[in-house]
Recover the amino acids of this structure.
């Protein structure tokens, strides 16, 4: 009999473990103190991720590591456990759990209803309910044996636990996964956490990512102001908690790569380097992630394949989701190659038992074993400064380790035991019986040839009838006992049932025949098992074909970003927007991203020549008013502090679609839910560039204001938010600017203090709302104001006069024609819709002649889009001013190019075809004001971002890539893998009138 | 000022008062002949130098003006260099039912309940709607006024864009029944991520069975020897005798197939599908079954991220190539419905022949609405519902309409919007 003989340690009762170290407990029996000293011998020990000891010994005592080493003799008094063939690893550490904390129940509820303006948290806490920095997980922590066991089973020994509620979540506790809370809490306050999820708060502000960011920024400022005072000017436990936890490791639960970058940016401003929990798609922008310098906490919850059997249903799945399905398990490997520091978390896994399998998948797909182990042990320990206690098996460390059947990252390796603080948790017996071999099974005088095969612990037996026929035996084989049943003949349904025990040469026992009679039986081993070649591992997909990462990570993304070229567009009809007007048969030379020449017969040997014969070359369209690429709403009455720039989204299909409509630059605006919206982002549509690279460097600062029905919540009958009338709207402005001016005085007074008295003086509180409002008054920030009826238009100009600044632009401005003379006098620009009207009461008198009248009156006039649909046909929208108002072609064209450039204060670099200006150009097949004109090329800074021919090729490539991935996904279903039904999550397009969100379904009610 | 070439239209105004819609005009007084224009007949043919005559509301002559044209008794209007078109037809619209969409009191298009076949748009149609005159101004002279929402939203009628009251404006009464076919996929909204996900609609089969029994009940109702009057089932009867067209609003390709099959199995005589890109996926099914398609505004975004970036613009041509009868329509912000001609223009930019594109807003639509015996082309005997444009009416640069006739009545083009334009242009001294 081929059996491994292992010396098994004395049986340890789990009962009463914790009590030993806790001297304050009075026992309820006779004192039972033991040394808990163990020697694990003959094992392969990973002392840490990079130190491997073969045939080594681990000594632990009283829950601590005493020593590891090769050739260590177990000291006297140690229980010796022989682990020949086994591996020991430090157990894993998960930094993203809420283990042992009560579940966070989110309030449910529909849209609408009265807004919650103030916090509902009782007590001396933050006025904003989303700030829960007063919370300490350590105070509420209660170990939970069920979830602890679930985590231990997959290798974890310690976790950081924090409550996932709020933008500031308070402190997290570091605990081991034992069974005694007094022992398990290693650090009651181990971290402070933050997120982009306001959790249970239903308070109106903040409601958007930019709002979350603003509130966090303001809180940093508030904390530093509040901290100056002793005693405090008032009590705010949330600020106290915030201040007290700043010295701890700061963890930000962000999300996808774009949110990782956003979180990191907040930290940069306040000198904090967050450890950032990501969603596992960082490979999509690995360079930017690397550059952030943040250490990541990375999940391995790879998405399921979609059910794509039906070609029509499969259309609902985006290419992004398909590609991510394929590449998700490559994420960790790519983070390693890029040199990013990361820890692995089990967070997000619905089935925790898939954890190890998924880590192994990452190891198959480029992650080194060393890096994997480090990310499970040392790195998380170090990130939360617990590396003196956990994460390795150096002397003095907490004895948290797992015993595995082999190399942890090999497919079949099992975790036998998981020791937490020197106490064992057993999941798979160390000593599995190995009964493999050939036997003569004799039952009631009949002898069968029996074969037992397979790995110890999961062995199977069968009766060999002849070369091609065998009968499977249902059986259970343990070290000492055996149970078997099998049919008497191949096809019979009734089974002989045997029960027995091992003896020196096999098995012996009693059993019952089919007829119920009791018999004796024996099985005598006659030979060793045949050596079998191991089959190629399933799931080893290191040589499979995988797709490229494209930018953006979606359909029509580029493998490599297009590059700047020297271009000579010859012989086209050029709409210069300069004194020359529209000139025919003219060349335009583009060099280093700028217009280098306009004229006839130009040449440049380095230039790629594009024939413009019969075509029209214009400036790129500039959309003064869009919400693509990251637009959104916050909902405070005055949200001047929120910045669209904080949430610019490069992964928006509408960027590409707009390029295909000749748009090259745009102002991405806040929505119109509030009188003072948020700060704009000015972008160029550099398809594929990262969010920060879309922004126009050095552009003037702008802000969205809004008037009328949206801000007074006309379609929310139960709204209680001030203002509810146009009268109130004026008050919001006067109040806002008045406060800003006084704010400036306060700061001036402080800044002008004599040098001597300044250090002892308290700094005034910085207020992001006042600062933005003040920038407006001081002419450093320009208003684009959503506006409709003449009364309110007039009002805002008067408010501006009162504070001695000029309103920059009225946008939509559908009744601008009624006060065009006043607008001209004030010097405000007008960016309007072409022919929109009557979708709400305040636009009843909108007329398509609005642009023409304002233009004729000398108002700087533009045509804008608001939605991505009209945004990609702005040439046509402008062209309607031929029909409605008979404007001259050049003047019309300027309404979507030069005039918006002027409104955005970009006219020095954009808006006309002039030497030295940005080479933002569009080549059209026809007069761009014609409905028949199509875009042939869209060029930004001398780089071709859209090309009609390449678009066709890209479409074919998208189709091919989808087809490949669909076939691959089908494979999953065929082989019995899990698939998900339905389609992808698609982010909805935002537009101006989305105040609540449900309007997304309600596009009719613009 | 010469810019205002259409101020001559003011000639047609008789005391238009701001805030009121233009005054309806009386019946055609004497025969009229339009001579010298490029006539786009709406059936694919073009007469470069045309003579289009009409009398008592009907077209009496469609000829080449280069030959001898007898103009005796006709009031001749020279339209040299201009273009003449059959009036554009807007199907599946809420015109007359909905005014300011954000105000509940101003919407009459959506009745309570799932099954409302007997509900009729006709009697709710408001001839004082301010949209009507703006439609005419761009050449849209006929529209189907259509109820929305519910499973069976009700009965539609084709209206002329002119009239004192709905009886006056009615062109073809109670010609359509609109069914909103359930979707196999539901959309789930997540506020936090501002995203939607399509998921299988678990109630789909139930909803289809419900519709099927409705059609079956309607048929057995007709055959039942004695019965209590059921207004709803009465209203369904026109579908089985061919006096009403069934408009199946179906989102997905499979839904199109299932809805058409159900209608056919239940002896519906005339079927039209209202669908978008999904129709292309089952184009051969539609062709085999001789089903025409009304497609939503093509000035919209592609359906999916991976769709052809110009997909909606190309759709009319693709459906045409597949051999289908296609009509263009508008949905959403009603004020934009006047851009119907430019949807056709865009289809031309993306490959469709200009006269074929024109059909999609004239004769094809007439066929789909079952009114092609009276309108949709410039042919002798048809309604004199037509207009004259300074240039190509499918291009916004040249869609400048000088004359429009509805059943021979020369209608007023000037409306509130022109009035306001002039009022303020005068205020600022831009015009005298």
């Amino acid at each position: 009999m081929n059996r491994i003989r292992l010396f098994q340690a004395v049986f340890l009762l789990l009962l009463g473990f914790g009590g030993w170290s806790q001297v304050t407990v009075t026992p309820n029996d006779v004192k039972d103190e033991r040394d808990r000293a163990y020697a694990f011998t003959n094992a392969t020990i990973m002392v840490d991720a990079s130190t491997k000891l073969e045939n080594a010994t681990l000594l632990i005592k009283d829950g601590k590591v005493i020593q590891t080493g090769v050739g260590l003799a177990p000291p006297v008094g140690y229980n010796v456990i022989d682990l020949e063939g086994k591996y020991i690893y430090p157990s894993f550490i998960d930094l993203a759990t809420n283990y042992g904390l009560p579940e966070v129940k989110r309030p449910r509820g529909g849209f609408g209803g009265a807004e919650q303006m103030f916090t509902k948290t009782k007590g001396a806490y933050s006025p904003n309910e989303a700030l829960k920095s007063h919370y300490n997980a350590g105070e509420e922590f209660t170990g939970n044996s069920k979830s602890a066991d679930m985590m231990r089973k997959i290798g974890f020994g310690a976790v950081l636990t924090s409550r996932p509620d709020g933008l500031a979540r308070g402190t997290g506790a570091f605990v081991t996964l034992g069974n005694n809370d007094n022992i398990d809490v290693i650090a009651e306050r181990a971290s402070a956490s933050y997120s982009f999820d306001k959790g249970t708060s239903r308070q109106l502000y903040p409601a958007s990512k930019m709002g979350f960011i603003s509130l966090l920024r303001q809180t940093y400022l508030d904390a530093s102001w509040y901290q100056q005072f002793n005693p405090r000017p008032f009590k705010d436990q949330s600020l106290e908690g915030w201040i007290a936890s700043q010295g701890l490791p700061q963890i930000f639960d962000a999300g996808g790569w774009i949110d990782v970058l956003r979180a990191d940016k907040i930290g940069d401003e306040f000198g904090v380097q967050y450890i950032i929990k990501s969603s596992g798609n960082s490979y999509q922008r690995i360079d930017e992630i690397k550059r952030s310098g943040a250490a990541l906490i990375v999940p391995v919850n790879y998405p399921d394949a979609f059910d794509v059997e039906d070609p029509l249903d499969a259309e609902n799945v985006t290419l992004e989701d398909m590609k991510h399905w394929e590449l998700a398990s490559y994420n960790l490997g790519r983070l390693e190659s890029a040199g990013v520091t990361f820890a692995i978390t089990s967070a997000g896994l619905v089935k925790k038992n898939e954890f190890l399998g998924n880590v192994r998948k990452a190891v198959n797909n480029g992650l080194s074993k060393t890096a994997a182990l480090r990310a499970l042990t040392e790195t998380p320990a170090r990130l939360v400064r617990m590396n003196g206690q956990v994460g390795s098996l150096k002397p003095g460390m907490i004895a948290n380790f797992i015993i595995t059947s082999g190399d942890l990252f090999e497919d079949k390796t099992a975790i036998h035991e998981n020791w937490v603080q020197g106490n064992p948790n057993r999941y798979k017996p160390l000593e599995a019986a190995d009964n493999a071999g050939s036997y003569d099974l004799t039952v009631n005088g009949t002898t069968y040839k029996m074969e037992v095969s397979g790995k110890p612990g999961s062995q199977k037996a069968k009766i060999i009838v002849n070369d091609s026929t065998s009968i499977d035996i249902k059986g259970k084989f343990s070290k000492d006992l055996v149970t078997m049943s099998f049919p008497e003949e191949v096809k019979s349904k009734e089974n002989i049932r045997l029960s027995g025990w091992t003896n020196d040469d096999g098995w012996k026992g009693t059993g019952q025949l089919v007829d119920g009679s009791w018999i004796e039986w024996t099985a005598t081993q006659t030979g060793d098992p045949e050596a079998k070649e191991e089959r190629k591992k399933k799931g080893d997909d290191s040589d499979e074909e995988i797709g490229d990462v494209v930018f953006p990570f979606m359909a029509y993304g580029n493998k490599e970003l297009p590059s700047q070229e020297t271009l000579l567009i010859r012989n086209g009809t050029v709409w210069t927007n300069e004194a020359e007007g529209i000139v025919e048969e003219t060349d335009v030379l583009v060099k280093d991203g700028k217009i280098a020449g306009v004229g006839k017969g130009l040449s440049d040997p380095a230039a790629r020549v594009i024939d413009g014969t019969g075509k029209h070359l214009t400036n790129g369209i500039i959309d003064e008013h869009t919400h693509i690429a990251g637009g959104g709403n916050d909902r405070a009455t005055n949200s001047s502090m929120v910045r669209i720039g904080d949430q610019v989204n490069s992964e928006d299909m509408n960027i590409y679609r707009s390029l295909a409509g000749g748009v090259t630059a745009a102002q991405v605006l806040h929505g119109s839910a509030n009188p003072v919206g948020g700060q704009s982002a000015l972008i160029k549509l550099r398809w594929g560039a990262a969010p920060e690279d879309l922004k126009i460097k050095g552009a003037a600062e702008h802000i969205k204001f809004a008037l009328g029905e949206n801000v007074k919540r006309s379609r929310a009958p139960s709204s209680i938010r001030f203002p509810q009338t146009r009268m109130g709207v004026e008050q919001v402005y006067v109040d806002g600017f008045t406060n800003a001016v006084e704010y400036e005085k306060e700061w001036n007074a402080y800044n002008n203090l004599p040098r001597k008295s300044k250090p002892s003086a308290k700094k005034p509180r910085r207020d992001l709302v006042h600062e933005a409002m003040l920038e407006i008054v001081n002419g450093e920030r320009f208003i684009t104001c959503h506006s409709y009826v003449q009364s309110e238009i007039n009002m805002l100009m008067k408010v501006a006069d009162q504070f001695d600044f000029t309103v920059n632009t009225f946008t939509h401005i559908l009744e601008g024609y009624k006060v065009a003379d006043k607008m001209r006098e004030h010097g405000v620009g007008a960016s309007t819709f072409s022919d929109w009207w009557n979708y709400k009461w305040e636009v009843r008198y909108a007329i398509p002649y609005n642009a023409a009248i304002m233009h004729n009156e000398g108002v700087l006039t533009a045509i804008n889009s608001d939605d991505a649909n009209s945004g990609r046909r702005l040439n046509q929208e402008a062209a309607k001013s031929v029909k409605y108002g008979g404007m001259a072609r050049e003047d019309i064209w300027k309404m979507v190019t030069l005039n918006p450039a002027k409104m955005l204060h970009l006219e020095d670099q954009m808006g006309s075809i002039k030497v030295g200006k940005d080479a933002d150009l569009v080549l059209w097949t026809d007069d761009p004001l014609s409905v028949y004109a199509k875009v042939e090329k869209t060029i930004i800074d001398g780089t071709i971002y859209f090309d009609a021919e390449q678009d066709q090729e890209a479409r074919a490539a998208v189709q091919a890539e989808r087809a490949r991935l669909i076939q691959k996904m089908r494979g999953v279903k065929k082989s019995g893998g899990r698939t998900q039904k339905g389609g992808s999550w698609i982010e909805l397009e935002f537009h101006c009138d989305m105040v609540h969100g449900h309007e997304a379904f309600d596009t009719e009610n613009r | 000022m010469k810019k205002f070439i259409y101020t001559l239209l003011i000639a047609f105004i008789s005391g238009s008062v701001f805030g009121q819609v233009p005054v309806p005009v009386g019946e055609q007084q004497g025969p009229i002949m339009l001579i010298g224009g490029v006539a786009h007949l709406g059936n694919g043919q073009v007469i470069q130098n045309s003579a289009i005559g009409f009398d008592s509301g009907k077209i009496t002559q469609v000829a080449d003006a280069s030959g001898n044209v007898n103009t005796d008794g006709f009031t001749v209007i020279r339209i040299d260099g201009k273009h003449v078109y059959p009036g554009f037809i807007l199907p599946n619209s809420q015109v007359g039912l909905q005014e300011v969409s954000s105000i509940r009191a101003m919407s009459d298009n959506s009745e309570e309940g799932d099954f409302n076949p007997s509900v009729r748009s006709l009697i709710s149609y408001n001839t004082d709607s301010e949209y009507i005159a703006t439609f005419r101004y761009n050449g849209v002279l006929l529209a189907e006024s259509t109820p929305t929402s519910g499973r069976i939203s009700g009965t539609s009628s084709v209206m002329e864009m002119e009239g004192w009251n709905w009886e006056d404006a009615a062109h073809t009464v109670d010609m359509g029944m609109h069914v909103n076919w359930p979707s196999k996929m539901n959309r789930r909204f997540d506020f936090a991520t501002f995203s939607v996900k399509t998921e299988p609609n678990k109630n789909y089969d139930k909803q289809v069975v419900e519709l099927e029994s409705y059609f079956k009940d309607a048929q057995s109702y007709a055959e039942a020897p004695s019965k209590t009057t059921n207004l709803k089932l009465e209203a369904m009867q026109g579908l089985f005798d061919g006096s009403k067209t069934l408009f199946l609003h179906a989102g997905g390709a499979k839904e199109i197939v299932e809805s058409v099959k159900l209608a056919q199995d239940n002896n519906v005589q005339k079927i039209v599908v209202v669908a978008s890109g999904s129709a292309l996926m089952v184009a051969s099914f539609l062709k085999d079954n001789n089903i025409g398609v009304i497609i939503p505004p093509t000035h919209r975004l592609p359906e999916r991220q991976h769709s052809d970036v110009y997909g909606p613009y190309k759709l009319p041509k693709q459906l045409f190539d597949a051999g289908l009868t296609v009509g263009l329509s508008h949905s959403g912000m009603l004020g934009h419905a006047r851009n119907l001609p430019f949807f056709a223009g865009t289809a031309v930019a993306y490959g469709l022949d200009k006269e074929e594109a024109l059909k999609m807003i004239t004769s094809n639509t007439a066929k789909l609405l079952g009114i092609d015996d009276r309108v949709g082309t410039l042919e002798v005997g048809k309604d004199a519902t037509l207009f004259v444009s300074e240039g190509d009416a499918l291009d916004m640069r040249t869609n400048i309409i000088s004359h429009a006739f509805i059943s021979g009545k020369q209608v007023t083009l000037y409306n509130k919007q022109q009035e306001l334009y002039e009022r303020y242009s005068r205020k600022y001294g831009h015009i005298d």
